[in-house]
Amino acid sequence: xxxxxxxxxxxxxxxxxxxxxxxxxxxxxxxxxxxxxxxxxxxxxxxxxxxxxxxxxxxxxxxxxxxxxxxxxxxxxxxxxxxxxxxxxxxx
Length: 92
What we know:
- The model has no long low-confidence stretch (mean pLDDT 73).
- The chain has helices at residues 2-5, 8-13, 29-63, 71-74.
- It has one domain (2-67).
- The chain has 4 helices and no strands.
- It is an all-alpha fold.
- The protein starts with a helix and ends in an 18-residue tail after the last helix.
């Protein structure tokens, strides 16, 4: 967002007097560089989140038996009307 909206007059009041104007205010090459930095940051965050999510699903699949789709083998009771099956009550 800095790459689009930064203005020197407001940046000075915020404690960043060296921040130049950006794209929407005639910032030029510095604004394009800042935009590239921000896009790189977005891509890195997306890659890290994907890797962490993939690792978590891999762990669940390999160590916890994965996501079950065979309800009869899992001992779950199917409900009518397309609702998700539930585990039967025991004991009570």
